[in-house]
Design brief:
Elements (H helix, E strand, L loop, with lengths): L1 E5 L21 E7 L3 E6 L12 E4 L3 E7 L3 E5 L5 E5 L6 E3 L3 E4 L8 E7 L2 E6 L7
Antiparallel strand pairs: 1-11, 2-3, 3-10, 4-11, 5-8, 5-10, 6-7, 6-9
The protein binds fe (ii) ion.
Fe (ii) ion binds next to strand 4.
Length: about 130
Amino acid sequence: MRFVETRPPSFPHAPVDASLAPIPGERWQVMCGDAGHWRVGIYSPPEARRADCGELERHDCPELFLLLSGGVTLVLSDGQGGVRELPLQPGQPVLVETPHTAYCPGGPHSGTCFVVERDSFDTEYRVPAEWQK
Ligand SMILES: [Fe+2]
């Protein structure tokens, strides 16, 4: 088990009224935000199978995932030490509160998600067997 604190400033300065260009092949890129409120980023995990996924993370606030391209499958704790999978669908955002991670079934970094979270929150990491209700 480990803990990570995310605190402001938690996002880079970004030009306004202009397109932002994510770098391909990065697991997680924070793009921009609104201090004291939200930040957004592009998530594209290198894991390509559920078996590649290790720890699940749980935040003390909800996190929104929206598939942008390719395929991304969420891996969610079932609360009993196991996991269930939820493939993201284009145009259908998912609000996640349970411990989670994700993989790209088409290969490393082959899918991308738009993610919305707070700019200040705590995260706890544990392997699935350690997430029991
Ligand atoms: Fe998360």
